[in-house]
C-alpha cells in the first residue's frame, strides 16, 4: 500500500479514530483544572476525579523576584548564532514526495503523532513515518528546525524527508529506521556493562571525524543550544543486536535563550524535574539530566518508573520521600519560590532515604558503588548542581566502557 493512498481502510480507519480522539477527547492533563464544573467531577473515574478536584484547590507556586536562573553551560549559544538558526517560525519547509513512501505497519502512537514502519519504494530502504496530528504550525516548524540543526549529530535520530498529504495537508516526518526492542522487554535483560554502555551512548556517541573529539547525544544537543525536554526510555531507541542507540522524538524540544521563561507542561510525568513541578520557568538543559537520572535509577534498581507519582502533585511527593524535604526547602528558598499552602501540606515532611535502601538481591550486581555515586550526581533538586552531560561522561562509572573503546580504536 502506498503512503499516498490515505483512503485505504487499512491506513485511514485507525488514523480517523486517532484524530477523532485527539480532537474530541483531550487527555485530562491538557484540561484547565478550573474549567471542570463540580457536577462533572462525579462523572470522571475516581482517580481522575480526585486529581481534578485537587488541581482545582491547589494554586501555582509563587516566584518572588531577585533569583534568576541561568544555564551553567552553553548559555549563550543561541545569542551567538544567526537568527535563522533559532527563529524556527520563519522556516520555509521544503516538502518531499509523499508517494515515495509506503506504509508497512503501525509501530506506535503518542499525544501528537502516530508512527509507522515504512519503506522507500525506489530503493526499498526501511524508514519510520511519523504522521503528525493537528497541532499549531509553530510546533511543527520547531521540531523540523531542531532536527535540521542537529543533523549529523551523534546518536541523534536522522530526519530523512518531510512530506504532506496533498488533500488534507497532514504533514509527516520520515526518519531512519531503528530495529528497536521495547525497553520493558530489553531493560530487565541488560547486564551491568550493557547499562554502562547504553547510558554512555546516550551521553557519548562515536568519534567525530569533523572535530576529532568525543561527542554525545545530550551534550551535543545542549552544545547546539537545544533542550530535549522529553528524555525517557520510550524516546531512546536501542537496536541491541547492532548495539546502536538513537535519541528520538524532538517534538517537545526547544532552543535555550538565557532568561526566557518556558512552559512547565513538558516531559512525561515520571521524568519531570522538580523545577517543572514547582513552576520554575527559567529552567535549562539540566532538566534533561534529571530525566536521564530517573531513567538510570530505574535501570540499576530494576524499578521502572523510579518515581511513580499518580499525578504531578504526587510526583513531587514521591521525589520528596527519597531526596527529603529539607533539600526541597533549600531549593525553593534559593530561587524565591513559595508552594501553595495546600501543596506544601500535601508534600509533608520527609527525611532523605539512603540510596542503599533501594538495593536488593535482584539488583545488587547493577547498583554498584560507582553507579550509586553517578545517580546521586544527577538526581538533585537544584538543577544547577546536577552534572552537565560532559561532566557525566567523565564519571568513573564509565571507565570500563572508555577502556573497551580505547582498545577498539587501537586495534
From TrEMBL:
Catalytic EC class: transferase
Keyword Transferase: yes
Record-level GO BP terms: inflorescence development; photoperiodism; regulation of cell cycle
Domain Protein kinase: 101-398
Catalytic activity: L-threonyl-[protein] + ATP = O-phospho-L-threonyl-[protein] + ADP + H(+); L-seryl-[protein] + ATP = O-phospho-L-seryl-[protein] + ADP + H(+)
Keywords (A to Z) from UniProt: ATP-binding, Kinase, Nucleotide-binding, Serine/threonine-protein kinase, Transferase
Domain of life: Eukaryota
Gene3D superfamilies reported in the protein's UniProt record: Phosphorylase Kinase, domain 1, Transferase(Phosphotransferase) domain 1
Positions with a binding annotation for ATP: 130
Gene Ontology cellular-component terms listed: cytosol; nucleus; protein kinase CK2 complex
GO molecular function, one term: protein serine kinase activity
One Pfam family hit: Pkinase
Enzyme Commission number: 2.7.11.1
Keyword match Nucleotide-binding: yes
UniProt xrefs under PROSITE patterns: PROTEIN_KINASE_ATP, PROTEIN_KINASE_DOM, PROTEIN_KINASE_ST
Entry similarity comment: Belongs to the protein kinase superfamily. Ser/Thr protein kinase family. CK2 subfamily.
Function: Casein kinases are operationally defined by their preferential utilization of acidic proteins as substrates.
Protein name: Casein kinase II subunit alpha
Amino acid at each position: 500500500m502506498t503512503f499516498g493512498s490515505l483512503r485505504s481502510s487499512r491506513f485511514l480507519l485507525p488514523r480517523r479514530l486517532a484524530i477523532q480522539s485527539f480532537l474530541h477527547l483531550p487527555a485530562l492533563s491538557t484540561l484547565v483544572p478550573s474549567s471542570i464544573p463540580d457536577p462533572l467531577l462525579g462523572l470522571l473515574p475516581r482517580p481522575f476525579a480526585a486529581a481534578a478536584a485537587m488541581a482545582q484547590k491547589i494554586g501555582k507556586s509563587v516566584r518572588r523576584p531577585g533569583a534568576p536562573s541561568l544555564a551553567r553551560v552553553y548559555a549563550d549559544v543561541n545569542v551567538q548564532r544567526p537568527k535563522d538558526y533559532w527563529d524556527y517560525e520563519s522556516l520555509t519547509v521544503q516538502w518531499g514526495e509523499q508517494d515515495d513512501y509506503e506504509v508497512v505497519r503501525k509501530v506506535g502512537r503518542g499525544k501528537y503523532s502516530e508512527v509507522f514502519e515504512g519503506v522507500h519504494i525506489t530503493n526499498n530502504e526501511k524508514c519510520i513515518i511519523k504522521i503528525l496530528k493537528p497541532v499549531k504550525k509553530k510546533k511543527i516548524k520547531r521540531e523540523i528546525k531542531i532536527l535540521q540543526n542537529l543533523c549529523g549529530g551523534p546518536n541523534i535520530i536522522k530526519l530523512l524527508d518531510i512530506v504532506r498529504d496533498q488533500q488534507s495537508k497532514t504533514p509527516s516526518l520520515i526518519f531512519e529506521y531503528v530495529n528497536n526492542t521495547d525497553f520493558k522487554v530489553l531493560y530487565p535483560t541488560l547486564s551491568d556493562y550493557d547499562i554502562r554502555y547504553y547510558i554512555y551512548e546516550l551521553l557519548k556517541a562515536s568519534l567525530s571525524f569533523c572535530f576529532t573529539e568525543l561527542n554525545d547525544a545530550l551534550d551535543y544537543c545542549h552544545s547546539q543550544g537545544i533542550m530535549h525536554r522529553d528524555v525517557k526510555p520510550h524516546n531512546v531507541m536501542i537496536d541491541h543486536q547492532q548495539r546502536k542507540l538513537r535519541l528520538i522524538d524532538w517534538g517537545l524540544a526547544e532552543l535555550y535563550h538565557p532568561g526566557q521563561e518556558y512552559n512547565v507542561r513538558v516531559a512525561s510525568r515520571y521524568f519531570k524535574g522538580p523545577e517543572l513541578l514547582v513552576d520554575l520557568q527559567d529552567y535549562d538543559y539540566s532538566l534533561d539530566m534529571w530525566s536521564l537520572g530517573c531513567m538510570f535509577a530505574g535501570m540499576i534498581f530494576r524499578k521502572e518508573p523510579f518515581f511513580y507519582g499518580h499525578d504531578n502533585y504526587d510526583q513531587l511527593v514521591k521525589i520528596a520521600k527519597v531526596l527529603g524535604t529539607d533539600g526541597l526547602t533549600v531549593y525553593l528558598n534559593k530561587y524565591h519560590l513559595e508552594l501553595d499552602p495546600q501543596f506544601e501540606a500535601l508534600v509533608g515532611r520527609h527525611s532523605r532515604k539512603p540510596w542503599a535502601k533501594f538495593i536488593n538481591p535482584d539488583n545488587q550486581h547493577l547498583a554498584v558503588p560507582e553507579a550509586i555515586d553517578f545517580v546521586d550526581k544527577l538526581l538533585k533538586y537544584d538543577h544547577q548542581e546536577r552534572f552537565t552531560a560532559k561532566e557525566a561522561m567523565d564519571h568513573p562509572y564509565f571507565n570500563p566502557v572508555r577502556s573497551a573503546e580505547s582498545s577498539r580504536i587501537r586495534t
